[in-house]
Write a structure and sequence with these properties.
Blueprint: E1 14-18, H1 27-49, H2 57-77, E2 82-85, E3 88-93, E4 96-100, E5 105-111, E6 114-119, E7 123-127, H3 132-145, H4 154-159, E8 168-171, E9 195-197, E10 204-206
Helix pairs in contact: 1-2
Length: 228
């Protein structure tokens, strides 16, 4: 009986998806919302509970409504899911995914209350308060995959929470391979099927020009490059 040929199993690219902490909002947004609520309440009282109504009441109602609306909007503007994994870092805004590959990142640092992931053409700002687990996982993964770009000091790293079991594993989606240039030959990748990716930093190569080691992170590529 002839032995059955073993099929080569290709690892699927995956990432963890993090949802924001539900109770998080910035101090400014919270303060603006509270001030708007107070002004709106005072305006309503001055307009409908006093006889005769105060002349300034309509303006107070309008200003309060604007302040309350702005506070609510600002409080939710920075609340978005974050993805971290084989294809770098991504943020979701509705159906739109903005992604930066590990190989494209120039620096990861903490700036104020945000973790900043900077690339040449895109900068992602992720609130530490809304995403304690996601930001910690970003620093962990970056330190493992592309350590030279991590500019977060040791004290800040130690203060970050454990990421064990955090996030939900999902397949990679929303990345763009076609139109990029092969890192080895600089030829444009015209079709997704012609691309191969570094499993470590997601650098892109033409399938017939994959080097033994990644030109970006130095990871071994022979037999380990992934399909998009």
């Amino acid at each position: 009986m002839a032995e059955k040929k073993k099929r080569k199993v290709t690892r699927e690219r995956a990432e963890r998806r993090f949802i924001p902490v539900a109770t998080h909002t910035s101090r400014f947004a919270a303060g603006l919302g509270m001030a708007g609520s107070f002004a709106l309440g005072a305006g309503v009282f001055a307009q409908w509970a006093q006889d005769p109504p105060r002349l300034f009441a309509p303006y107070l109602v309008a200003a309060g409504a604007v302040g309350l609306g702005a506070g609510l909007w600002l409080g939710s503007a920075g609340v978005f899911p974050v993805r971290v994994g084989d294809a770098g870092i991504a943020i979701e805004r509705g159906t739109e995914i903005t992604r930066v590959l590990w190989c494209d990142l120039e620096e990861i640092r903490i700036e104020g209350t945000d973790l900043v992931a900077k690339a040449a053409t895109t900068t992602l700002r992720i609130p530490l308060g809304a995403h304690p687990k996601a930001t910690a996982f970003i620093v962990e993964e970056a330190a493992r995959r592309v350590p030279l770009i991590v500019k977060v000091d040791e004290a800040a790293r130690k203060a970050m929470p454990s990421t064990a079991g955090s996030g939900t594993e999902v397949p990679v989606s929303g990345d763009q391979v076609t139109g990029r240039r092969c890192a080895a030959t600089q030829k444009v990748i015209a079709f997704e099927r012609d691309a191969r990716l570094c499993a470590n930093c997601a650098q892109v190569y033409q399938k017939d020009s994959v080097p033994k080691e990644c030109v970006t992170c130095g990871a071994e590529l022979a037999g380990k490059a992934l399909k998009p």
